[in-house]
Amino acid sequence: MTDVVALDATAQAELVAKGEVSPQELVAGAIERAEKINPELNAICSPLFEEATETAAGELPDGPFKGVPFLFKDLGAGLAGQPMYMGNRALKEIDMRMPYDTHLGSRFRDAGLVTLGRTATPELGILPTTEPVVNDGPTRNPWDKTRSSGGSSGGSAAAVASGIVPIAHASDGGGSIRIPASECGLVGLKATRARISQAPVMGDSMSGLTTELVVAHSVRDVATMLDWVHGPVPGDPYGCPAPSRPYSEEVSAGTEPLRIALLTESLTGDALQPAVVTAARETARKLEDLGHEVTEFDLPAAGEPEALYQTFITRWAAGMSQTSDTLSLIIGRPLTQDDVEPLTWALIEKGRTEGGAAYLSAIAQHQLIARLIAGVMIDGHFDLIMTPTLATVPPKLGHFDQNGPDPMDAMLKARELATFTGIFNATGQPAISLPLEMSEEGLPIGIQFVAPMWGEDILIRLAGELERAHPWIDRRAPGVLG
Q1: In what helix (H) or strand (E) does residue 106 lie, and over which residues does it extend?
Q2: Which residue intervals of 187-273 are DSSP H helices?
Q3: Residues taking part in catalysis
Q4: For residue 71, is pLDDT > 80?
Q5: 199 vs 118, 232, 234, 235, 415, CA distance in Å?
Q6: What's the pLDDT score for residue 453?
Q7: SS3 letters for 263-285?
Q8: Model-level pTM greater than 0.90?
Q9: Is 289 buried (19+), middle (13-18) or exposed (0-12) by CB count in 10 A?
C-alpha cells in the first residue's frame, strides 16, 4: 500500500475497478497515514474513520472515483450528520451537525468517494492561512512545517500534499482553492461563477464570489471531478453554458498556439517577491518552447488599487454579517464578540455599518472590472492571462496575526499575498493554479492561468499540455513517499 500514495485518485480508482485493491484496503491505508501524519500537520479537524471503514465495506456507488479516500473541507459542502464547525468555537461547542446533504456533497458521495472526515479551515474561511483558535494549533505545510499550508482550504491541501488522501474538497471566495494549491504544490481550479451549484441553501454566496471543487495532484483528477459535479439544479439563480465535450477529454487534447498575457505587477499596489516573478518568467519560457506566445502586460486600472481592495472587503464584510445572523439562529442566541476571532468580529461590524448601497456599489465596481478585463482579452487578442498565483512563497505561520490593535491588519497582509487571486472571484472568471515551479529553498510556487468566462476547457487543455511536458506528479513533499 505504500506505492498507492504515489498515485492520483484516477489511478487508485482504476486499481479498484480491476480488482487489484479493495476500497477497504485504500481506506485502511489512508486512515493509517492520517493517524501517523495528522497529529503533526493538524489537517483533519473532524475524523470520521469508523464511518469510513463501514462505508468502504459496503456497496459503493459506481462513480469515477469508486473506493477512493476523500476529505471534506469543514466549510460549505457536506453530508447529513457530519460535523460542521467552520473553524468557529461556538459551533464546535454545540457540536453542530449537517442537517442535510448538499448537492455537491451528494455528488461527491455518488462519485464513489469514501469520506474520512473534515479538514481544517480558518474561521468562516476568511484568512489565506489555516490557523483557527478552535483547532488548538495551526495546520502545517508538509513542505516546511514552519510555514502556512494556505487557506481557506489549507487543511485539505495539507492532507493531499502529505499523501493522506489523493483528492479533497476545497472552496474559493478570494483564492481559497488556488492559494493552498500553490503553497502545497497541487492543482487547484476555481471554476466559473455558477458552474457548480451550491444548492440547496445557497444560490450565489456573496453574489457569486465563492465556488467549490477540489485540490488534487493531477489535472485529470480535477477535470474528471468537474465533469461529475458541474451544472445547475432547479432553483439556481443562474448557470453556465454546458461545455462542448467532457472536460476529461480536454486533458489529452492538443492545443493550438495561444496568446498569453503575463502579469508580474501587483494588482493591489503591493510588492512581489523576486522568486515568484522569476518563476512566472521561467514558466513563460516553457510556454514559448511549446509554441505559445507570451507578452508581459499591465491590466488597465479600474480605480485605485486601494479601491479594489476596499470594495472586495465590503462584499466580504457583508457576507460575514449575514453569516453571523445565520450562526445566531443555529446556536439559539445572538452571536457575540466572544464567540468569534477578532478579525471575524471586525468584519461583522463593518458589514453591519456599511449598508446596502456600499454593497451594491462594490458589485458595480467589480462588474466594471470584469468588462475591462473581457475587453483586454478580446481587443488585445489574448486567450489567457497568466500570473504567479501568489505574491510570495508560502509565508511563515503567524504571519497573519489578527491580535494586534487593529485586526484588519491581517487582511492587509492577505491582500498582499492574494493580489492575483481575489480579483478573479470578483470577475467570476475561471482560474487554475498549477505546481510548475519551485523556489531555491525547495518550496512550491504555483502559476495561475485565467480564462474568459466559461473557459475551463482551454485551461484544462493547457494544463494537460504543461503536465505532460513538465510533469510534477512525482514531486512530493519530503517524506511523503516513505
Answers
A1: helix 103-110
A2: 219-229, 247-250
A3: 73, 152, 176
A4: yes
A5: 19, 9, 9, 8, 29
A6: 96
A7: CCCCCCCCCCCHHHHHHHHHHHH
A8: yes
A9: exposed
